[in-house]
Design goal:
- 19% of the residues lie in helices and 26% in strands.
- The protein is α+β, with helices and mostly antiparallel strands.
- It folds into three domains: 56 residues, Structural Genomics Hypothetical 15.5 Kd Protein In mrcA-pckA Intergenic Region, Chain A (Roll), CATH 3.10.290.10; 96 residues, Alpha-Beta Plaits, CATH 3.30.70.580; 81 residues, Pseudouridine synthase.
- Strands 6, 7, 8, 9, 12, 13, 14, 15 and 16 form a nine-stranded mixed beta sheet that branches.
- A hairpin with a 4-residue loop joins β12 and β13.
- α1 crosses α2.
- It is globular and about 65 Å long.
């Protein structure tokens, strides 16, 4: 056993430091430490161990690397009527769409589907039940942290069809209203981060956001007198929905990064 180092207020849990270095998620780190797969400065680490926030002498056993490389990240073009996570009010989770039959034939990945890939497959972010488009399901904690971690700066792009509050067309939005959508609105008592919002055509707006409060875009539109009639997410960071058909899925490509 390794000797537990003396701790100071500046030290952090080893699992947190491993997550900050992008090695894995905190949960994965604790699993690996428990299996004896992590060393700090050459010594086997223990659960609960604390290290300097600048510690870089952390090594991981090849067994952990092999396990991690086998974990999958799946991209779904989610239809309306599916929830992102656990089943709610009789609605099925998007995970139930993942099967051999719905695997997109245009997928360039060399991976082959197996039911084991459904284990520990969780959404990295939400997409409302009445919204469509790109949803990420992953077994890899690094991917989840990149997209929804507290320090994530990954932006998401949406195509949003709008009407006037009474449903009439064409939608009317003043310059001041458009400026507020870009920066100036608050939700739940907190100022929203700046967004990039612009007209795509006479009935659709493009939203690019780095945050994702519950039903944020719909509530933003309501605040300036608009009603969302269709919302589709088309990009998360550097990964695009592309030609993926509705209700189908594919693997994240080896050359794709969020």
């Amino acid at each position: 056993m390794t000797q537990q180092p003396e701790t100071t207020g500046a030290e952090v849990r080893l699992s947190k430091r491993m997550s900050e270095l992008g090695l894995c998620s905190r949960r994965e780190a604790d699993e690996w430490i428990g299996r004896g797969w992590v060393r700090v400065a050459g010594a086997v680490a223990e659960l609960g161990m604390k290290v300097s926030p600048a510690e870089t002498r952390i090594s991981v056993d090849k067994r952990a690397e092999r396990e991690q490389s086998g974990r999958v990240t799946i991209l779904i073009n989610k239809p309306i009527g599916y929830v992102s996570g656990q089943a709610e009010d009789g609605y099925k989770p998007a995970k139930t769409l993942v099967s051999e039959a719905t695997h997109w034939r245009g997928d360039r990945s060399s991976r082959r589907f197996s039911r084991a890939q459904l284990e520990s497959l969780v959404p990295a972010g939400r997409l409302d039940i009445d919204s469509t488009g790109l949803l990420v399901l992953t077994q890899d904690g690094r991917v989840a942290r990149a997209i929804i971690g507290e320090e994530s700066l990954v932006d998401k792009e949406y195509i949003v069809r709008v009407a006037n509050r009474d449903g009439s067309m064409p939608p009317r939005l003043s310059r001041e209203g458009l400026a507020l959508l870009n920066h100036g609105l608050a939700l739940d008592g907190a100022q929203l981060k700046p967004a990039r919002v612009a007209w795509l055509n006479e009935s659709e707006l493009r939203f690019e956001l780095v945050e994702g409060k519950k039903r944020q875009i719909r509530r933003m539109c309501e605040a300036v007198g608009l009603k969302v009639t269709r919302l589709k997410r088309v990009r998360i960071g550097g990964v695009r929905l592309g030609n993926l058909p509705l209700g189908c899925w594919r693997y994240l490509g080896e050359d794709e990064k969020f």
